[in-house]
């Protein structure tokens, strides 16, 4: 796989070509609700990651076939003089549910093996449909998290030492959509309202007032929207609440596992203290009869403290809970506002 050119300036913006945006949307929506992935191609220049092309990954579970497919695609693009520098990958998501170990591991491999400037683009299909706005977000792992993940040490002590929290797992970068001048001119042309010549009076009698009235007729105001009076909760909110409950249950399970580890450590430490007390008593008796004392460092070979379970899963669950609650805050306002308005009207 080809990689992007090295750069010393940190990234501050991700620039997507309009063609890349359309390809990502098409691939993710056609495969919805199955999550899909793809490759991003381009170049990073002066802190701006320019993504100029992309292609989807096959949905096959065969890793060897998928790797061969990527190599073949890169070779074909190089032969037709298309950008073939790997700058990251993209992935579809459902209702903001994307922070998992698979995402962490894949992004770590991209930043560690291919390019430190690699990013992952997340396209949330369901959120885009619910809000009516395109949901595209760009992330990369922070340097502190990269160092911690390399050591595979996510204990409470190591996380406190490295100051790792759910807020510094990823760096989110702003996204800009870039189009060529020809595409921009076409978009402005399509945005300009047109008037049917057959519907206009003759040029000699066509006044500015008639022209304004004709354009107003073509662009008639929207009909009244009675959906805003619907008192039912948004399905998007209901699904977010379900996901939030699932994350809370999983977080409770992680908490129970950590408490079990703490109890196991406490039991072993009690055994260690009892063994040391007994050994000290034996050494005191041996000293009275002139015998050499027995070693006390044998305690480390006799007793082994349980290994603390990784706290990474718990931190990712916290990040997911934060994401779901943030989305609920965005949608709860209009829904609750309607309910309170109706309550006041009923009074």
Automatic annotation (TrEMBL):
Alphabetical list of CDD domains matching this protein: MPN_eIF3h
Keywords tagged on the record: Cytoplasm, Initiation factor, Protein biosynthesis
Subcellular location: Cytoplasm
GO MF annotation terms: metallopeptidase activity; translation initiation factor activity
InterPro entries: eIF3h, eIF3h_C, JAMM/MPN+_dom, JAMM_MPN+_peptidase_M67A, MPN
Highest taxon listed in the record's lineage: Eukaryota
GO cellular component entries: eukaryotic 43S preinitiation complex; eukaryotic 48S preinitiation complex; eukaryotic translation initiation factor 3 complex
GO biological process, one term: formation of cytoplasmic translation initiation complex
Residue intervals of the MPN domain: 14-145
Family affiliation: Belongs to the eIF-3 subunit H family.
Function as written in the Swiss-Prot or TrEMBL entry: Component of the eukaryotic translation initiation factor 3 (eIF-3) complex, which is involved in protein synthesis of a specialized repertoire of mRNAs and, together with other initiation factors, stimulates binding of mRNA and methionyl-tRNAi to the 40S ribosome. The eIF-3 complex specifically targets and initiates translation of a subset of mRNAs involved in cell proliferation.
UniProt subunit comment: Component of the eukaryotic translation initiation factor 3 (eIF-3) complex.
Protein name per its UniProtKB record: Eukaryotic translation initiation factor 3 subunit H
């Amino acid at each position: 796989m080809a990689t992007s050119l090295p750069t010393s300036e940190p990234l501050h913006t991700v620039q997507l070509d309009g063609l890349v945006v359309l390809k990502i949307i098409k691939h993710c929506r056609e495969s919805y609700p199955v999550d899909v992935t793809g490759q991003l191609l381009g170049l990073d220049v002066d802190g701006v990651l320019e993504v100029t092309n992309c292609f989807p990954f096959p949905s096959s579970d065969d890793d060897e076939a998928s790797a061969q497919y990527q190599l073949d695609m890169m070779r074909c693009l190089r032969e037709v003089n298309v950008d073939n520098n790997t700058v990251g990958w993209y992935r579809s998501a459902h209702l903001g549910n994307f922070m998992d170990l698979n995402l962490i591991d894949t992004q770590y491999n991209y930043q560690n093996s291919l390019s430190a400037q690699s990013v992952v683009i997340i396209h949330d299909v369901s959120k885009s449909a619910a809000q009516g706005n395109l949901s595209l977000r760009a992330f990369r792992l922070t340097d502190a998290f990269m160092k911690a993940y390399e050591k595979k040490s996510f204990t409470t002590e190591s996380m406190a030492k490295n100051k790792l929290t759910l807020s510094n797992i990823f760096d989110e970068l702003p996204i800009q959509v870039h189009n060529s001048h020809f595409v921009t001119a076409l978009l402005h042309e399509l945005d300009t309202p047109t008037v049917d010549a057959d519907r206009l009076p003759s040029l000699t009698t066509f006044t500015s007032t008639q022209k304004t009235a004709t354009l107003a007729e073509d662009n008639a105001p929207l009909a009244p929207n009675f959906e805003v009076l619907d008192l039912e909760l948004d399905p998007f909110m209901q699904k977010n609440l379900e996901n939030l409950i699932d994350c809370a249950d999983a977080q409770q399970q992680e908490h129970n596992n950590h408490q079990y580890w703490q109890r196991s450590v406490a039991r072993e430490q009690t055994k260690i203290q009892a063994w040391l007390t007994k050994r000290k008593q034996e050494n005191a008796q041996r000293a009275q009869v002139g015998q050499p004392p027995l070693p006390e460092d044998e305690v480390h070979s006799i007793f082994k403290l349980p290994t603390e379970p990784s706290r990474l899963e718990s931190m990712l669950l916290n990040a997911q809970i934060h994401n779901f609650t943030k989305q609920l805050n965005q949608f709860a306002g209009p829904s609750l506002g309607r309910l309170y308005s109706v309550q006041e009207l009923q009074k």
